[in-house]
Amino acid sequence: MKRILLAIITLAAVAGCSGETALPEATGDGRIRMINAIPSSPEITFLIEERSLDSVAYKSNSSPQRWDDLTYTFNFEISRPQQTETTRIASRSLDVVREVDYTFVVRGSLDATTVDLWEIPVRSFSGAGTVFEMRVGHTAQTLGSVDVYLGLESAAPDLGARVATLAPGEVSTPSDVEQDVYIVTLTSAGNPADILYQSVPTQIVSNQSVLVTVFDGDANDTAPTTIRIFNDQGLSSALADARFPPTARFIHATADLGT
Q: In sequence order, which residues have a C-beta less than 8 Å from that of residue 47 and are 6 or more positions away?
C-alpha cells in the first residue's frame, strides 16, 4: 500500500513539474448584464461568484461588463428590512462563450424567483449604417402571451408589422430595423383588437443593439404596462403608454406668499 501511495505522489510531482496546468484558459470574453423584473422588489445585487457587480432596481439593468469565456456561478441577493444578512434568492451557472451578450432576467417573486437567460452574438456597427438591431423581451407576468407590433408613426393608427408573439420570460429573435419614429403596440395573442399597450411615438437611432422589454407597471407608472428600451451600452429609456397621460402635483412651500 505504501509503495502504491509513493508511486501516486511521485506521478503527481512529475505532473506538477511538467509546466502544464489543469486550470482552464480564456480565449476571449463575453458580455454580461442583468435585468430586475420583479415588481415591488428592492434592489437586487448581481454577483459573479461572490463578487458584487451591481445593484439593480425594478425595470432597470446592470452595467454590461465583459468577462473571460470561463464557467461562473452568478448569484442574486437582496437585503430584507431588519435583517443584517443578505438573502440569496437565486443562482445560475453559465459557461461564457466569447463574443456573446448574455442578459440574466430575474422575475417571478422574491420567494419563487426565476432566472431566464437571453443571449445574442455581440454586434459590431460601422457607424455608417441606417439600421438598429432589435429584440423584444417579455417580463410582465400579468399579461400572459402577447403579440408585439412595430409601426411607423406616419402609418398610425395602423398597428404595423407583428414582430413577435411572446410568453412571459421569452425574447424575440433579432431583426434589423431602419432608423425612424415608431409606435410599439401590444395586444393579446391572436387578438389584434385587444390593445394592452400603445407607446408614444419614439425615435430609435441606428448603429446600436436594443432590447425592447415589457414590464408590469408599478406605482411610478400611470398605466398597468410599461416598456423600457435598453441598448448595448446599458443605457435605458422608458416608453409611456400614450393612452395614460402623466400626472402632476403642485406643492406650495413658501410661507411668505400665503394661499
A: 53, 74, 75, 76, 77
- Of 235, 232, 236, the closest CA to residue 122 belongs to 232
Q: In what order do the strands lie in the sheet with 65-68?
A: 65-68, 29-37, 100-108, 113-121
**Whose grid coordinates read 429584440?**
135
Q: Say what the pTM is.
A: 0.86
| Cα maximum dimension of the chain | 98
Percent of the chain whose pLDDT exceeds 90: 79
Residue 65 buriedness (CB in 10 A; 0-12 / 13-18 / 19+)? middle
pLDDT digits (tens, 9 = 90+) for 60-102: 999 999 999 999 999 999 998 888 899 999 999 999 999 999 9
Instruction: Give every CB contact of residue 63 below 8 A, 6+ residues apart in sequence.
Output: 33, 53, 54, 234
